[in-house]
Amino acid sequence: MKLHFGRAERIRLTALVVGGLLCASTASAANLVSTIPSDYGNSEMGAVTGSRVTTHIDAEGHPGVLKNLNRDPASFGLHLAGRSMVFLRQYTYSTTELEGNLLIDPNSEGAAAAVASGKVLSVPNAHAAAGTDTHIYVTGYDLGKIGVVRRVGNKLFENRPATVDLKEDIKKYCGYNFTESFQNLDEDQFGVTGKTYTGDPAKAVVHGEALLTVEKKLYVAVSVNPLGGYDPYDDGFLMQYDIQDDGTLKFGSYTRISRNIDQGRLNRFNDYILVSCIGGYQHYNGTGNTHHTALSVAKIDDNGKLVGTEKRNVKLPTDVTATGQDMRDLKILPNGTAYVMTYNLSPSGSQINARVYQTTVSNLLSDSPKPWNEIVAVENEEGWFGKLNAEYYTKRLWLELGDTLRAYEDGDDTERYKWQARDFSDNKAFSRFNKITMLEPDHVHGDTASVVLAAPPSANDKAVWKSSATLTDSVTQTRSFGSDAVISIGKNKLGDYKTNVLAAVYADSSNIDINAAGHKLNLQVENTVGNPTGIYAGNGKNVTVSASEVNIITKGFAGGNTLTNAVQLDAAKKTSARITINAPVNISMTGGYGGNGVAVQKSDRLGEKSYEASKASTIRINNDLRIAGASTDQWGIPLNRENVFSRFNNAGILTQVEKSNVTVTGNVDMTVYGNGVTTNAANSSVHISGGTIQVPANMKYSYYALAAYQGTINMNTGAAGNMPGTRDVKLAGDLFALPTGKLNVALTTSNSYLHGLIDNGGTADLYLQNTAKWINEGRNERYYQDDEDKGSGALTDGKYIPKSRITNFYGGAAESSRGFIFQKNAQEIAIDNYSGHTKVVYEHDAAAPTVMKGGDIRIAKAAADSGITLSTHNAGLNTESTKAEDKSLVNATLNALANKLYYTAYTTGERNLSGKAEIAEGLVSSSATLKLAPITFRSESGQGQYTPDTPKPDTPKPDTPKPDTPKPDTPKPDTPKPDTPKPDTPKPDTPKPDTPKPDTPKPDTPKPDTPKPDTPKPDTPKPDTPKPDTPKPDTPKPDTPKPDTPKPDTPKPDTPKPDTPKPDTPKPDTPKPDTPKPDTPKPDTPKPDTPKPDTPKPDTPKPDTPKPDTPKPDTPKPDTPKPDTPKPDTPKPDTPKPDTPKPDTPKPDTPKPQPQTKFTTGIGGTVDADYTKSGIKKADNTYVFDLTSTIVAAKGITASASAPITVKTGSDATLNIQASKYGIDAGANSQVNISGNRVSIDTGSVTSRRTIHAAAGSLVNIASGFDIKGAVENKGGAITLDDTGKKSTFDGDITQTNGTLNLKLKGEGSTLRSNIRARGTLNIDLTGKNTVFTGSLTEMTQVPSLLRSARMTPVAASAPSERSITIGSTSTWNVTDASDITNLTAEGGRIVQQSDGLLNIKNYTGNTTVFYEGTADKNGNLTLAHNGKVQVQNITGTKNRLTFATKAFGETAETEKKVAAALAGQFRYTGDRTANIENNALKNLDLDVVIGEGILKSEVTYQMLLDPATGTAGGVKEIARPLIGSYETQVMRGVKSAMASSATAWRAEANDLMKRMGDLRLSPEDAGLWARVYRGKSSSGKDGMDYSLNYTTIQIGYDKQASKDWRVGVAGSYMSGSSSYTYGSGKNKEGNFGVYGTWSGKDGAYVDLIAKIGRLSNDFTVSNPDGLYVKGDYKTLGMSMSAEYGKRIAMAGGSYIEPQAELIYTHLNGANYTGLSSYTFHGGSYPDLEIRQGAMNSFIGRIGIGFGRETERSTCFAKISLYHEFAGSLATDYVVPTQTKSTHLDFKDTWIGVQLGGTMKLSDRTNIYGSFEKTFAGDIKTDWRVDAGMRWNF
Questions:
Q1: Model confidence pLDDT, tens digit, residues 334-388
Q2: Which residues partner with 1393 through β-bridges?
Q3: DSSP secondary-structure letter at 1227?
Q4: Helix (H, G, I), strand (E, B) or coil at 902
Q5: Radius of gyration of the chain from Cα atoms?
Q6: How many CA atoms lie within 13 A of 1241 on its CB side?
Q7: Which residue in 1778, 1669, 1672 sits closest to 1731, CA to CA?
Q8: What is the pTM of this model?
Q9: Strands 1500-1506 and 1467-1469, how do they pair?
C-alpha cells in the first residue's frame, strides 16, 4: 500500500522502493486527501481514502505513503489537461540550493504515481501551482516570481526566459513603485498601531500566494512587503495574465486586494473571484488584523479581464468581525454555498483559536449581509495552520484545525472522523501538519459532443429572451395574469441569502397559485451571483402554475462555473411539498455549468442529510416537457466540465431526495449534456408517459438517457411500471441501474427505439413490441475514475466494461408483433426472464460470414410459448447455390448464429423457448428472409446450434437434384412484418402511434417481475461479480404466476430504504454504510448522503426587513474620536488652583460635554433631548452639526406643518442618516431645509424604503453635497436636491404622483442611478463636469403601494405632467429602460442607449450624441446590443444637432455605409412631417450618423435621409464625400506621442553632462566622484502629439586628470518618467553609459567631448473616446556624441563672460513591435496593431553666451542659448491586416534656452551645485528642469 521515496545522493524522489503511492484501502476507494506531517526536521506524506460518489470516508488514515521528505515540503493540487495532479515542493530555506520538485498522479499506484520530476529554479519556496492543457505554473514566497513549467515524459522542464517577475510587473503595469506611503491601522509585530510607512524599492519584496487558471487566463494573488521582511504589508494585487500558445504569459489586467493572502484560495464564481486575506502580519499573541483582514472580491469581464483596479472587500457581518479573527480560508461551491474559516494564533503562539462558517455568495456580496451560520468553534487547538475544503457532490467537509484533520460526512453536525498529524506517519514524532491538500477528481477534457439532428437546425421559438417584461421581481405570492406575461429577473439582483436561489417564482413563506390559464407565461432569469431558476418551492411550500404554456429560460455567466435548476423543489425533511404545472413546459438553460431541468433537490442545510425525508415531495407536469437549446443543434442543458462521474451529471429530471417523485403526464423531448433522467434517492421515482431523450455519444465519459442509482424510472409503463402504454419512446443513450435502482421501459410502437446498452445491476424491465427497435450498442465509455457505480458490467484491467442485462423482457405476443434487437455490442445481452417473441439481428463481414459481430444472447428462463429469431444478412453467402461449399457455408453461418444464443434453463429441463436462425437480404427489420433454420439447444450448456436435416444423402443425390429443400421451407415470409424499414434512423417523430396493437401480449406474465433481482445488491461487495450471481434470478420462482406478487418478493430493493420508512430516524436507513464500509463501499450509501445542509435557517423568509437594522453602523464609529479632544482644555484649571480654590472648579462644568455624534432617535422638530443636550439643536430650532454625525433610527428627520426642520452641517462635517423606514418624512405642508457640507441618507434599499417622503404641500430643500441611497416618493410636495457643485451620488428609484422635483447635479463626477416615474414637474440638471445619469424617466400612470410591489393603482391625471432634463457638455445619460421626456436640452454630452425601450422626446433643443453598442459582420449587417429607438416630436430653436453613433465597424466604405443606414433606422420624427421635412432633412435639426474611428480607420459622418411619409430614415448619404475625420486616428496620435516623448527625451539627454562640466574647471584635484539628480517636464503639441513627460534622472560619474590639460571620466544615468497623452499614458525609462573629456587651455578656452550609448523604453496605453485602446511596449537602443567649444573671459571683480558653440548628434535605432488591441471586430478580437518605428537621426547646433561671477568658494551664472535642429525626423508605419497608415514627424526647429545655476564649495574636497533651465519658442518645450548635485574630490 505504501510507496517510499529514498534519498539518492543529491536528488530526492527518484527511486520507488515498495508498495503503491497514495493507494486506496479497498478496490473501490479513491485517494481523497494528502497530508504532510512533520517535525520540521523531516517529513512524510499520508493519505485519506474513501468514495468519490458517496459521502463515505475510510476511518483509517494511511501513514507514510511517501517517505524521506525534507523539513519543509508542501503539496499543491492542480489539473493538467483535465487530469488531477499534485505538485510537490521541498523547500530548503535557500534560493540557490534546491531539491527537486515532483509531479504526482494521485489516481495511479506504485511507480506510475510519480509521473515527472525536475527543479523550478525561479520558485524555490512554492506557495501555489496551477495547470492548463500543456503547462504548469508555479508561484512562491521567496523570489516573487511565476515559473513556467512543461512536462515532457517523466521530466519537468522550466522555461526560464518565460519567468514572470511579479515585482517588476507591478511597477510596470500597476503604477505602483514601492515608494508609496501607507498606513497599518492594526498592530505591527511590536504591538504598535496606526503607523504610517513609506516603501523602499530596494528593500521591497512581493510574494506569489495563489494561482488560478481559467482557459487561457492565469490569475495570481500577490502579497506586498514594501519594506521587506514580514511586516508591514501594504494592499496586495490580483493580477491577470493571458496565456500564450507557447505557455508564456502576457500581462492583461490587475486590481488591488487586501493584505497578506498567505496561500489563500482564489475562488472563481462565474464573473467574480474571491480570496481570503489575513490583513497583515500574522500575530502570535492572539490578536488579529481587524482593520485589514478581508474577503476581497474582484470582477471579471466576458473576456476574463479584471474590471477596475480599486480594492473591494466583502462586507462582514458584525458577529464575525466581533470575534477579531483573521480571514484564513474560503471555499465556494458551484451552487453558491460558501464556507469561511477564521482564526488567530493564541497567545501561546503554537495554538489556534478558530471558527468555521457557512453562508452563500449572495450573502457575501450583499451590502447588508445576514449573520453567517457558525459550524465549528475551537479554542487553543495545538498547531499553527488552518484550512478547509468542501465537496459539492458528496457533501463532505474537511477541516484542518491546527494539528488535527476533521471530516464531516453528509448530514453531520459534528465531525465523523478526527485524525492527529502523527496518524499519517510511521514516525510518531511527526506531530505537526505542514500541509493538507484535497485531491480533486479530474475534469472533463477534450472535444465535446454535438446534438444529432434528423433535419437541418432551426430556431427554438420557446427559448427566445423577451425584451419587455411584465414583472422584474420574483413572484412570491398568489397571482393571476389576464394576458401573456413575462417575468424577467435581471443581473442586478442577488439570490436568497440562505439558498442562493434567484427565481422568477419563489415560494418559501407561503403557497403560490399562479393562474395564467389560456395565456403564455415566460419565466426568464439571468444572473451570475444567484442561481437563476424559473420556479422554486422550499420550506414545505406548494406552487401551482396554470397557463397555456410555461417557457423557462435560465442564463448564467457564459463560460462560468456554477450550477442551478430550472424547476426546483427544495424538499423539507419532515414536510411534504409539491409543484404542479398545468401547462406544457419548455426549458432552456445556458451559462455556467448548467444544472438540472426539473429537480427535487435540497439546498445545503447543516446537520440534515441531503437525501433524507419522511414526507413525499412531488413535481407534476400535466402536459409535455421540452428541454432544448435556443437552436435545435444546441443542448438544452450544457456540459458540466468539472464533473466526470455519471451519477452527478446534469439531468433533465432529477430526484435526489427520498420519497420524491416527478411525473410528466405528456411526452418529453430533452437534449441534455448529461443524463436524461436520474433517480438517486431511495423510494424516489420518475414517471414519463413517452417522448424523446438524447444525450451525448462517443465520449470517454458516461452519459445515460435513463439512470436509476436509487429509486425507479417508468417510461411509457404507467404509474406502477407494469402497464405498457402506446406512446412513442425514443431513447438515444445508454440506460443504467445500480442494484438499488429500477427501470421500466416500454417500446411498443413502430417509431420507438432505444439506441444504447441497458447496463443493469438492479431491475430493468423492457417491453419490445410492434417492430420497435433496440440497438444494443454502447454509446460512451466509462471514465477510469468513475469505477464505483457498477451495473451488470465488470472492471477489466482497471476499466469498467458495461453490458446489457434485462430482468424481465416482454416481446411481442406473436412474431407479427415482435420487436427487433440489433446486437452491436461485443458483450452479451443477459435476460433473466424472457417472454413473447423478438428478432435479434447480427452483422458479419462478407469475407467471414460465420463470425458474428456481437455478443451472445443469454436467456436464463423463458415463459411458455416464447420464441426468438437470430438473423444476419446474406453478405458473402449464396443461399440459392447448389454447390456443396456454398451450402456448407450457409449452414455454418446458421450454426454460428444459433451458437450466439444460450437458454440456461434448458439444462434443468425447461422447454419454453423455441429459436430460429435466419439469413435475410439485409440488416434492417424489413429484410426478406432467404433461409430459415430451427435452433436446438445443447442439454449440457443450453447453447443453441443448428444441425442440417439431411445427414449426407450422397447416393440419393440424383433423385432429388435440389428440389428437396428448394427453400420452400423458408417461404414463411413471417418476416414481412417489416413495415418499419430503417431501425437505425427511426428518429421520425411519433409518426403513428396508432399501430399500437398494444396487445401487450401477456403483460400479466410479468411475473418474472424481478423475482429476486434485488438480491444482486448483496453481491455488490465485489462489483465485478455482480453479474455472475445473476443466478439468483433463477431461484425467483420461475412460475412467476402473478406479476403482482413479484413486486413484494423484491424485498431487497425495498428493504434497503424501506426499513427506514420513518425518515425521522433516517440514520438507520443507511446503517449498512457503517458496517459494510469496508466491503460495500459504494452501493449502500450510494448517493444518499450528498447535500451539505448548512443553512438551516430557511425560516426568516423576509431578508429585506432586517437590512436596515445595521445599515452602516460602522461608519459613525470613526467620527466619535473627535469628541475626546475637548477634554484637554480642562487641565488649565490646575495651574490657577492656588489663587481661586473654587472659581476654577466651575470651569470644568463648561457644559460642553463630549459632543454627541451618534443618535438613535431621529430629528423630530419638538423637544429633542439628545440634540439639545449636545448643543446641536439651537434656540431657533435649527440643528447645526459641526462634527460628522450619524442618526440610526426608523425615521431620520420628521417634519410637520407646525414643526419645520432646518439642518446645517459644518464645513467638514457630514450628517449620516441610516433609516429603516424614512430618511426624511415631510408631512403635509411641512418644511425641511438642509444646507452646508454634506448629508448622507441610506435606507438599505433602492426600491422599497424611502430616503425622502414628501406629502402634499411639503417643501424639502437640500443645498449641499449629498449621498442618497434609497427611494424617493413625492406625493405633492416640492423637493429640490442641489449638490451646490460638490460631487454627489443618488442611487434609488423616484416616484412622484404630483408636485415638483428639481435635481441639480453640478458637482464634478456626480452620479444619479434611478428609475424615475413622475407626474407633475420634474427637472433634472446634469451640467456638472462628467456627471452620469443611469436609469429611465417615464410618466407615472400607476402608483404602487410599496413603489415596486405588484399591486398598482391608477394616478389621477389632474395635474399637467412635465419632465425636463438638461445634459451638460461632458455628461452622460445611460438609458436603461423606456423613457418619455417633455423637454430635452443638450449642451453636448452623450446619451447611451442601454435599453430596448423607446426614448420619446417631445421637445428637443441643442446638440448631443446617442450612442449604441453593437457588432457587425464583415458584410455590414449590424446587430445592436440594445434596440431602443429615439423619437422626437418638436424641435425648438435653430442650429440643433442630433447624432447617432456607434463604434468602428466594417472594412470598406460600402459596408460602413450599410452599418450607418441601419443605425439611422433607430430614429423617428413624429411631428408635422409635411411642414418640417424638406429634401429628406429636418428643418432646424441636423441628423447625423457617425461611425467611430478604429485603430487606423478614421471616423466617418453621414447625413440621415428622412422619409417624409414615415418620419423614419430611408437611408444615409455622404456629406459631399463622407466627412472623413483626421487621417490620423486618436490611437495613431497616441502612439506617435508615445514615440516622440521617448525620442525627444533621448535627444535632450545627449549633452546633459555638459551642464556640470564647468564644475570640473573649479576642481584642480586629480580625481573626483560625483552624483546628480534632476527632475523636469517636457511637452509638445506639435502635429497633434499632445504629450507631457515628467521625468527624474539620477547620474553618477567619476573622472580624473589624464594630463596637464585633459580630464576624462565615465558616467551612467537612469531616467524614469511618466508621460500623458490626450487619451493615454506611458511609463518611460532610459538608461545610458557615457564617456567624456574636457580640455582646458591657459587662456580660458575649453573643449568638452561626450559619447553615450543607452537603451530607452516606453510602456504605454493609448485609446480613443470610445474606449478602444492599444497597449504597446516600445524598446530601442540609441547613441549620441557632442562637442562644445567655449572660452571664459575674465572681467573685473571675478565676473566673466563665456561664449559657447556646440554640435550634438543623436541616433535612435528603429523598432518593430506589436500593440495589443481591444478592438473587437466581427464578433472576435481584431488583429493587434503592428508598429514599425523608423530610426531617428538628430543634428543640433547651439550657440550661447554665459555670464557669471566666480569667488574662491562659489560661482553663479546665467546662460542663454539659441538652438537649431537641422535633421530630426521620425517616421512610423501602422499596420493591420486590412490597412496601413504612416505618420512623419519633422523635428526641424529653432528655440531658445535659458539656464541659471551655481556651485559652492562645502570643503576643499566637496562641491555642491544646482541649476534651473527652461526653453522658449520651440515646438518641443522644456517646461522646467531642476538639477542638484555633489562632487567629492580625491
A1: 999 999 999 999 887 689 999 999 999 999 999 999 999 999 999 999 998 999 9
A2: 1375
A3: -
A4: strand
A5: 41
A6: 30
A7: 1672
A8: 0.58
A9: unpaired
